[in-house]
Structure formats: C-alpha cells, structure tokens
Design a protein that fits this description.
Chains A, B: It comes from Candidatus Gemmiger excrementavium. Two copies of one chain form a homodimer. With 421 residues, chain A is an alpha/beta fold. Chain A has helices at 84-97, 102-118, 132-145, 168-181, 202-215, 227-236, 243-248, 269-278, 286-291, 299-305, 323-340, 350-362, 395-405; strands at 4-13, 21-31, 34-39, 51-61, 63-69, 121-127, 148-152, 154-155, 188-190, 193-194, 219-223, 259-263, 281-284, 308-311, 379-382, 412-415, 418-419. In chain A, strand 16 and strand 17 form a beta hairpin. The radius of gyration of chain A is 21 Å and the shape is globular.
Chain lengths: 421, 421
C-alpha cells in the first residue's frame, strides 16, 4: 500500500463525449500513479492510506494542451492585428530566432515552464524552436517541473528568414542528434515537428519520415489552418489533392506514426476521411483561429465522424495558456459557426468541451484524461470560493462557472499520481 | 490650486477612432475633476501641486460599460449552453425575480458593486430589475463607491413569468416614483429601461414616452439582437418596417431622448440610418452575442457610418465584467465576421477597440473617455509587472498585452478626478 493514497473532494470527469460524471464529496484512490476507483466512502481495504482532503473544492482531470508554441510565449497578446502569414513574418520568426542564444532561451523557457506549471494543464504537445540545445533545455525544465508530454525541435528549410532556417542536411542531422539526446528524459518525450509544409522541402519531409520509422517518435504539425496557407501548399505540392497528402506521402500522417495536427479549420471530406482512417488527432485551437483570422473548425462534424479531437491553446496565436479559456472559446466559436455558417452543426456544450480538454486530447498519451479505473492520475483541484455568488449552484454549475470565470490556476495539481503543489 | 493635482505615468488614450496617443512618463494635470493638460515636465504654474507618481505603470482613461445587467451578475458563466429566448426563461427571469426580496438584492448587488469597483470600468449604463426598492439600493451602492453612470428600473408587462411582470399602470406608477426618488443621487442617475419590445405593451411604451418627456431621463433597451427575437417583434408590432420603429414611434429612439441600444447585431440599413439620424448609441456586446448565439454585429459598418459605438459586457449574457475582455472579444469576433461573412468589412484593431471602450462609449456621458483638455478625469492605472516577458515592448505593445492578458483590475482608479483606490 506504499504508493496508495486517496483524494477527497467533488470529483467531476467525462467518461464519454457530452457525458458528465459527478461524484460529490467522494474518494478517488490512486495506486502506483493510476486510478483504482472512486468511492462514496473509503472501502475497508484502503483503511489507513493517506487521504488528501480537498473539502468542498472541485477536482477535475488535468487538462491537455494538444498544441502550443513554447518559443512564442514571450509575445502572447502582441501583434494580434495581423493575419497568419504576416503574423508569422513579423512576430513569430523574429522571436523564435532569439532562441539561438542559450541565455535568452533559458530566461524565456523558465517563464513558460513556470506558467505551464501553475496552469491546470498536465499534458501537452509543444513546439519549441529550430534550436536543439534550447529545445533540450525546455524539455529539462518541464521534466523537472513534473509535467508530462511531448516537445518538438522545429524543422524549417525553406520560406523562412535567414535567422530561422537550416539546410536540409543540417536540420535532419540536428534532429537525429536531438532524438538521441532526448533519451535523458523519462516523461518529456521528443516529437517530430516539421513546422508546416511551406517551411519544409520534400527532401526534409522524406528525411523526417525515415527518422520517424527509425526512432518511432510521434509527430505534430499544422494542417489546413488558413485559406491563403492552403493555397500556398497546393502550389508547393503539385499532385496533392489536399493538404494532408503532403504529409501522408512521407508516412507522416497518423497510422504507424501517432500524429497531432493543429487547426484543421478547412479540412475537406477527403482529408477528414484520411485523418479518421489513420487516427490522426486534431488539436482544435479556437482562439488562435480567431486571432489570426483563420475561421472556425467544424468540431461538431469531427465529433460526429468519431475523429480524435483535443484542444490547443496555440500560444502565441492564442494569447492564453489556459485550456479552460480554450474550452469556452471552442463553445463560443461553435455557436457563431452554427449561426453564421452551418445550422446543421449545433454548438458544442460545456460537457463536450470538457471531454475534449481532458479525455479527448488525453487519449494521445494513453489512458489519460479521465477518472475511470486504470487511468493515470492527472488531477487539478479548483477553489471556486474566490468567485462568490448569491445563486446556489449544483456541482455541474460550479464546474461551468470555474471554466468561464476562473484564471485557470488550480490550488493543487497531480500528474501521474505525483503532487506538484 | 486646491483641487489641482497631477498623475504621472505612461499615459495612453485615443483622441480619435483608431488613433493612439502615447505620452511616456508624462504628467496629467487635473483641475476640479477635469483634465487641464498633459505635459512632459510639470509647468512652473503647477509647482507645488500634489503629484501621484505611478512610475512605469500604464494610465488609461477609465473604461465605459454601455450595457450590463446588474441583476444577472449572480449567474454569470452559468447556463451558457442555451440560446437567447430559452436562456431568458431559464436563467434571467428566475434570478431577477429574487430581487423582490430586499435582503437578496442587498447581498447580490453588494457583490456586483464590489466587482465593478475593482474593475477598470468607471462609467456605465446598467439594467437593474423590475423592483424599485432594489434598484434604488443598487444606485446607492454605486454612488457610495464613487462610480458614475445610469441605472434603470426595468419595465415588463407582458410575455414574462408571473413572478416578473407588472401591470402597465403599476409599472408606470413605480417608474414615476423611482424617478422622483432618484433625486437623492448626484452621480448615479436613472435611465428608462423597457426590457425589450416583447416584454412591453404599446400602452407601456407610450407611458414611458410620456415619462421621458416629463423627466428628461435617457433611455436604454435591446435592439435587433437575435433573429428569433426580431421575428417575434415583427409579429407583435404590425406596421413597423424594422425593430427600431417599435421604439421610435413612442419617441424612445434617440433625438431628444438620449438612447443606448444594446446589440444591433442584425440592424438593417433603414434602422441604422435612423440610429445615425437620431444619435442613438450602440452598445456592442460581442461576448454575449457569442454566448447566446446571436451573431456578430457589423461594427466596422457602424464606424464607417459615423454611428456612436461603445462596448458592453452584457453580464450575464457575457460572463465577464471586464471591458478589456469586451475589447478583445470585439476584435476576435470582427475577424471571424470578416472571414466568414463579409470581406468588405475589415477586422477591428486594438486602437479602435480602445476608442470604443473609452471615448466612443464615454461620449454618452459628456466629455468622458479621453485625456484631452476639458475631459472629466476618469483614469485607471495598470501594472503589467505581473505579466513578465523576455520580449522588450513598446508602450503601445504594453497596452495590447494588458488588454489581452490582465485580469482587468487596475491598481488605482479615478472617477471625475476623485481617487477611489
């Protein structure tokens, strides 16, 4: 019973999309980092185990951020009056170039890792920058913080400023070395990260495909985010019928290569069919899609099709690291899409958004994002006492209020059974 | 020189829509509650006046909330999975009914007044509820807090639950009494508040028109928010060509009656022309328009037409009282509208959103919302030190970051030259 303990509080999770499981004032037992069960009263077989009693607070699964750029955190909330491709030129590329300097990278990634640690996010897929040493440093900071997830050294060998471009050979060699050096980390693992098709030559993509097969690393990139980007990809990749094919033809689109694709705002039927077939995860990033004027992804359609969908903050296309904010952005955007674009796709609901933010995205990491038996214990404890109201609230309503109104910072956080604070 | 003092800090305001005036480390001199001028160094004639030095912090005009429901604050962030008319039935009406109880009203309005005081909002147009005593209590709390603006006792005599409906005669008599009793307040003034056309009979509207002419009170209501609401109004008011006419035919649509209309999401050409002609103020409430699935108002069109436009939090259709949040919601919504609806109407920019949040809405209150000479000194001091970044920022960029990232709570606040905290 050494590695066994219990949390007590108001437990809420989503066993299925749209379904809210509510366990007021219950015990959640954790054995060896994984969930043993939820109980109204602690069973006799657990007598004497440590109980961390969180009183009347809310306990939710840790949140999952399926897409964010750690190397852009320094300019979140800046330059938001630009569209995607201009925004990349004027904001993203100059900032990311600075990560060649290890001192700058250290300072910037420390701020990022601190903010991510304080947030309700427990798992993530992150873009770093081109720079191997800085990327390793980011991984070390996140591992030391007790967080878990994937980080990618970015690849770029075309259509990039001189300060942020590698030769193809250099990029592949650095990536190979980085994959080897990442063996130092147990819980923050490497993920292949071609920035997006316009930044990567066919030769680069083919090389990354080979590395994928050699190392078995998963992969992340951007897909069908913005209409001008899609037109550019079509130009760059003659013979492809849709954007996703530009990845798929190199074996980098799900299947044997676990893949997260950010955005998919404009993914057509063929692209979505291939995503579904290959089990590609969609990182829905509603705030970023507003900020850089991309549009609104048809999330209801994704859910109907049985796609894997999680949420991404997409810092710094999104200004906010909070996945609670991503949940409400997703709901709000889906309402506008319903009203303005397609009344056959009803808006998302709070339980659906919570599912995407936890179990939906969590599935990329294995049994993560739920309080069902066997799931790794990622949990956040939320105190809504700072949000006083005269209206009596049910437990489900308290969750909705916390998601809409809180700053997204839990008062306690557990990752794979380990308490971080 | 008794009522003369200076603020020192980084002064930022919008003399015109889209134009940002930046005065780093400057002095703003206030005489008798109004702005005397901005100076790099304090002129000799002001030698010896008290200087409140806010160091490197940002100083902006106080923000203006042109539309919020004080009586709905208790359930902000709740029941957001509903569309407007269902949301009114299930959320708004049951909550507002409670304000018949003075004890409930006291507790609920205290929470609201505290939150509004801590926020960056200095001026407002607020809906209370039907209840005269509770409305007077709200006015007293806001006046005691040092805030300034308008509050309305709501009128409803049809299509409302039994617990939230008056007879026409009762409603008009109570409104008249409330207008008389409001004479107690110097800075929080009464505003006629027919809820919206579906809640008010023609007889009620005619009576309110008479009260308007007798007391000279301004007026606020809702206009063209939601398609199902508009269809309902057309049914209820045969012979009107557009929603606004249902107000205008009773003399309650601008002109001699200073008027704020919330939403105007679907206002057509004729309605907009009449608003322009009559100087009706538009309270743009982007978050609420998302939350209750109304749509996106064509704000760029309003600005081109020279309409008066300010921002509204529309709590609790909007979950957030912060007008900073309303600014970023307005920008984000305008980007989606540009992308999805009408590429002839470019997105709003940060300086335009700041204008609407200050001088645009402030014009309803006189010379309010700018740091130009003669304006009443409403100012908020913002400390962005809690938002650290490794990226050097210009003054304009610091403002953008604070608007996107801060919790909207200033560290000091001045209303008409008086410091609140």
């Amino acid at each position: 019973m050494q590695n066994t303990f219990a949390l007590r509080g108001n437990l809420v999770y989503t066993p299925a999309c749209g379904e809210l499981a509510l366990h007021p004032h219950s015990y959640l037992v954790c054995e060896n980092g994984a969930l043993a069960g939820i109980f109204d009263t602690l069973p006799a077989r657990y007598a004497g185990i440590p109980v961390e009693d969180h009183g009347d607070k809310l306990i939710l699964p840790g949140l999952v951020d399926l897409h964010a750029h750690a190397g852009q955190f320094a300019y979140r909330g800046l330059g938001m009056d630009l569209e995607l491709l201009d925004w990349l030129e004027q904001n993203a590329f100059p900032e990311e170039s600075k990560f060649a300097d290890p001192h700058y990278a250290e300072a910037a990634y420390r701020l990022f890792a601190d903010a991510l640690t304080r947030s309700a996010t427990t798992r993530f897929c992150l873009f770093a920058t081109l720079h191997r040493p800085a990327t390793l440093r980011l991984m070390a900071l996140l591992e030391a913080a007790g967080l878990r997830g994937f980080v990618g050294k970015v690849n770029m060998d075309r259509n990039s400023p001189d300060t942020l471009r590698e030769t193809t050979a250099e990029s592949l060699a650095e990536t190979c070395r980085w994959l080897e050096e990442s063996a130092d980390f147990a819980h923050v693992r490497p993920m292949l990260t071609p920035r997006f098709i316009p930044s990567c030559t066919d030769e680069m993509m083919a090389g990354l495909g080979r590395l994928q097969r050699e190392f078995g690393a998963p992969m992340q990139s951007h897909l069908s985010e913005n209409l001008s980007e899609i037109a550019w990809v079509a130009e760059l990749c003659p013979g492809t019928r849709f954007y996703g094919e530009a990845y798929a033809r190199h074996g980098l689109f799900g299947g044997a290569c676990p893949t997260v694709m950010a955005h998919c705002v404009w993914s057509g039927e063929e692209e979505r069919a291939l995503m579904k077939e290959n089990g590609v995860f969609i990182a829905h990033c509603p705030q970023s899609n507003m900020n850089v004027s991309s549009g609104i992804a048809p999330v209801r359609q994704f859910l109907r099709e049985g796609q894997h969908v999680g949420l991404g903050s997409d810092v710094a296309g999104g200004a906010h690291l909070s996945i609670f904010r991503a949940m409400t952005d997703a709901i709000q955007a889906s309402k506008l899409r319903w009203r303005l674009v397609d009344q056959d796709l009803p808006a998302l609901t709070m339980p659906e958004a919570l599912y995407m933010a936890t179990k939906g995205g969590g599935a990329f990491f294995g049994k993560v994002g739920s309080f069902e038996p066997g799931y790794e214990l990622d949990a956040v404890v939320l105190d809504d006492a700072a949000l006083p109201t005269t209206r009596p609230c049910t437990l489900a309503e308290r969750v909705e209020r916390v998601v809409y109104l809180s700053d997204g910072q839990p008062c306690a956080k557990y990752v794979a059974g380990r308490r971080l604070f």
